[in-house]
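Example for tutorial group B:
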């Protein structure tokens, strides 16, 4: 465990425009000695919006007055700035976090701009000498950490993943690229450390710096308010995360089967809470593992999350470039000619009920059932022969759990272009998948045009001559789409 204790982080290259100076990473108190002074310390919050099991907060509280700050930084991510659904979640999560901080005698300071500039400005305004934060592994956060460390004493802590990237290595000392051996290696180090409680109180400075008003950030949609249905499904914030976890504990034993059934509420629905750091993966692991049920399959989903972050550490451009260069030769359809098909996919009008149900659920709730995500992604990539990057970008904008690591790695897994991926030639049949996983009730909920069809017809109304006039015909037949995809693949392979 000595590797873990030293908090090893990304070994992979940073993107080309990163500053030259390397940030000094200090994941724990041993590497970040406690400073005793009356000067406040800054707590830089990002995708870690919680008070419990928050190593950066715990370290900051030991040093004196704490100024928690969230910076809306669209400068570093550039084209990967948060999408609309994530901004909706962020608004409510920040509201919840500020309420919790005030219960502890503190508050949340909001600033907008480049993280390094805003933190430097706050340090000058308050006399703060140190910044505490959790590690984050998206390329823009690694950029930002390096920039902050140029001018401020930045202390980085672990806690966003089960293990920091680089904590487990192959026998040859390299980074795992394949999930299965990675998962086994992580399991050897589990369980993670016991989660810590939120501090009883958070010392506050004598004077608080000015803060932006959250409403001025305009994170919520208005004209139109396409997120009006989100609140029926979600309660962003630490309390909402714990409530979802508690409700899931009784279902853990059913997860291996239920997770594949769209008509059943069989998933944890914790993905957005984990992405925004409203609950730590260690907390989830310990609660689930102690449920008294066999939780192995679900725990491996948490390990997959770690795996995805390891991959973006090694390949920061995973969201925009094929991980396997041989896929660069694949000739995708140009959106100038395939744009109508792409729009049909985005709006749930493909004529494939399981695909359309998933895409409509995504738009209405900011989330999609995991099995259906794979079916919908496969349909876009293979049946429609549209570049996976277009689908990944749509998910980025519409998912409340839009994680750069998970979204990128999952899309490339379906496409076959990932480091560890499904074969391109394995083409999901959405009609048979729909029937196999008993999606009839799911389709009736999200595709009301088909609500009156029985279970025998609803998965493929076209073939059974049962398609209502209000529902579109298939934009391409399964066989035709499959053959076109395989032909494109053979051509790319030469």
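The residue assignment follows.
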């Amino acid at each position: 465990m000595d590797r873990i204790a030293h908090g090893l982080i990304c070994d992979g290259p940073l993107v080309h425009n990163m500053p030259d100076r390397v940030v000094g990473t200090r994941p724990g108190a041993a590497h970040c000695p406690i400073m005793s002074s009356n000067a406040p310390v800054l707590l830089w919050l990002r995708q870690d919006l919680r008070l419990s099991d928050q190593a950066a907060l715990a370290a900051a509280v030991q040093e004196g007055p704490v100024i928690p700050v969230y910076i809306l930084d669209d400068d570093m991510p550039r084209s990967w700035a948060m999408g609309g659904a994530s901004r909706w979640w962020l608004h409510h999560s920040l509201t919840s976090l500020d309420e919790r901080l005030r219960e502890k005698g503190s508050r949340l300071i909001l600033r907008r701009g480049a993280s390094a500039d805003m933190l430097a400005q706050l340090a000058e305004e308050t006399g703060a000498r140190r910044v505490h934060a959790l590690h984050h592994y998206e390329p823009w956060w690694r950029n930002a950490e390096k920039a902050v460390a140029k001018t401020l004493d930045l202390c980085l802590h672990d806690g966003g993943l089960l293990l920091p990237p680089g904590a487990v290595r192959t026998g040859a000392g390299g980074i795992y690229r394949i999930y299965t051996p990675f998962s086994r290696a992580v399991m050897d180090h589990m369980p993670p450390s016991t989660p810590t409680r939120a501090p009883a109180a958070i010392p506050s400075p004598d004077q608080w710096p000015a803060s932006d008003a959250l409403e001025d950030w305009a994170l919520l949609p208005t004209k139109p308010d396409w997120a009006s249905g989100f609140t029926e499904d979600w309660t962003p914030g630490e309390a909402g995360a714990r409530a979802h976890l508690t409700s899931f504990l009784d279902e853990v034993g059913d997860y291996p089967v239920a997770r594949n059934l769209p008509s059943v509420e069989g998933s944890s629905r914790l993905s957005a809470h984990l992405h925004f750091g409203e609950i730590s993966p260690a907390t989830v692991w310990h609660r689930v593992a102690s449920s008294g049920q066999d939780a192995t399959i679900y725990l491996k989903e948490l390990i997959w999350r770690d795996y995805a972050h390891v991959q973006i550490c090694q390949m920061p451009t995973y969201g925009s470039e094929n991980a396997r260069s041989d896929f660069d030769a694949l000739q995708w359809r140009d959106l100038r000619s395939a744009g109508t098909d792409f729009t049909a996919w985005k709006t749930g009008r493909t004529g494939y009920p399981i695909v359309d149900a998933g895409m409509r659920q995504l738009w209405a709730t900011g989330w999609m059932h995991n099995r259906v995500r794979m079916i919908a992604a496969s349909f876009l990539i293979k049946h429609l022969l549209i570049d996976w990057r277009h689908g990944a970008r749509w998910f980025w904008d519409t998912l409340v759990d839009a994680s750069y690591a998970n979204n990128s790695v999952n899309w490339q897994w379906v496409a076959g272009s990932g480091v560890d991926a499904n074969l391109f030639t394995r083409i999901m049949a959405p009609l048979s998948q729909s029937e196999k996983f008993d999606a009839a009730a799911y389709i009736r909920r999200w595709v009301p045009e088909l609500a009156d069809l029985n279970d025998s017809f609803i998965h493929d109304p076209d073939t059974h001559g049962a398609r209502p006039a209000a529902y579109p015909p298939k934009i391409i037949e399964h066989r035709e789409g499959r053959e076109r995809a395989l032909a494109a693949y053979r051509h790319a392979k030469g």
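The radius of gyration is 23 Å. Compare this with the pattern of hydrophobic and polar residues in the output above.
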